[in-house]
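Need the bound structure for phenylalanine, inputs here:
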Amino acid sequence: KRLTQEVEAYAIENKEQLETFRNTYVSRKGQIAALFDEMKTVAPEQRKQVGQELNQLKNLAQQKMDGAQETLEQNATPDALSGLDFTLPPVPNALGTRHPLARVREQIIRIFERIGFNVSEGPEMEDDWHNFSALNFPENHPARDMQDTFFLSKNPDMLLRTHTSSVQVRVMEHQKPPIRTLSPGRVFRNEAISARAHCVFHQVEGLFVDRGVSFKDLKDTLYYFVKELFGPDTQIRFRPSFFPFTEPSAEIDITCLICKGEGCNICKQSGWVEIGGSGMVDPQVLENCGIDSKEFSGFAFGMGIERITMLKYQIKDLRLFTENDARFLRQFEAI
Ligand code: PHE
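Answer from helper R.:
Posting the output first, comments after.
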């Protein structure tokens, strides 16, 4: 009887109290189990009644413990989750988009792939031979200044490549003609940053070397490319120019697609914009790379990917490409 009252009165409000309750009364070494052990000392005629009372006590204690355990579990709130409202809608995850320059590089590669060009790459940190000497830039020639080179302070023979023409040299050194390759990549020039220029930008180089390659092949290839990328109405013109590694050389202009030829600050009011340089690979350059210039000829071109992207998507300031403003980048999601 005393134990029944005790069990009834016992307050279980936390885990520790539950555990004490279990140990004191319910466990195999607890007080109720001890009473069962004493059953053998009870007179046979009373055993039945005492047994019933003990069983009731045992059930009472067990029920009390189960009930308390359930309440404790229901009220339990892990500290880390308290104060959170799980009915609030989640903050949406913003998916990133591919950078416009990466998309345009991809489009350019697709167009040239269709006429048999593969893709080749070279290092951004170059030696003098691949960036200049093999390409006919004479030692101390002002053409080397023309490209505002970043030299590496530890080794004056090493520099950050000023153009992707260095990759032409690497390909020709390792591969016999026919060669039809496209080399996209980052290039570096010590230029003041403005709406039209940056010290880090991207070029894509094209190189075609085989028997009997002529200037007509160069023109046909670039006509095809410009019409594919910018649309069939785009005009293209070649302007005589000079590069140490091509002869003859020509600059490639297309109609300014920002002002549709009307004149704007990107085309300096001329209606035309330059997208790159081109020319027939100088025979000496072929020889420098171990290709017989009496047997083979080739053309090459190099174009600025920023400039092409600006024209294609009417972007008026080149600095937008590196500012990473999500409002700018998100506009290319659907392209
Ligand atoms: N490498 C030249 C430049 O960066 C472009 C060019 C490439 C010209 C191939 C002719 C042939 O200005």
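Comments: The longest helix spans residues 44-75. The chain has a mean pLDDT of 90.
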